[in-house]
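If it is no trouble, can you show me the amino acids of a protein and the tokens describing how it folds?
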Amino acid sequence: MSWFTQMLQNLISFPYLEEYLSSVVHPWWFRKLLILLCSLMIDIYLVGCACSFGLYVYMKMNKHQETGPDSKIWKKPRKFIAHIADIYGKIWHGYEVTGMEHLPKGPGIIIYHHGVAPLGYALFVARHFLETGRLCFSLIHRLGDWIPGLQMFFYVSALKFYKKAEIVEMMKKGHLLGIAPGGGREALFSHDYDIMWGKRTGFAQAALEAKVPIIPIFTQNSCEAYRTIGKTRLSKWLYDKIRCTFILIYGGFPVKLRTFIGEPIPYDPNITAVELAQRAKIALENLRDKHQKRPGNILRALSERFDKHYKAN
């Protein structure tokens, strides 16, 4: 590892490389990294690592302290990353957003369907930041706490496994937070845009406690950009038992992506978390049924890149 570090340092001449690698590479992480690379997209992982290293260098060169992801010191690198993501979305997916006017000026919880890769949501966050300058926080799986090489990128992008108390406090500060209630199970085992929330109502309970609206969003063709091979009873059983499984992910297809933002579900003190979660699920399903042709088809999603007469209705 010392030889490898020295070779890379000589190649790119960054004095912070050895310090950075020593902070993210530990012997016990190699086993978990192997599991990660078997179940996630390697190309996305490597891009994230490159961004994380660049942010680390930026922090060291500017002598920044740990002041929180919403600090103004991260505005320039965050804007740069958002521009790169938005350019990628425009060129590779012809990305569009409809319904920005439905987003509240104040706090709110955004819910979305978790495709194999939450690409549509990520492009939405970048576009929203460029248009409004407002950071959208995002809830991720506990897995993010130990993925080597991505911690700095997650930190600056406000990606974290937030507890309910943290979410409520975040809402009091006026922030937006994105949540995919279906999580990893929906990403890996959802069939044809099925909403797989089970009995999860935590996001609804947090919205009620913080007295904020819930905003559903749906990205058309999100399940056609990346797909999986290996959905079996055994792989699902493994995921349910140990929250880890081996499923091959392929794709990166330049399909048309459009994100539709639905009307907010306002705070109502007279309903329960279960009722609010059900209402949010129905709102998301209505967006899906209105804007997504099912069953999904990669060739059709590709051809929509050239459809100049598409209408949202």
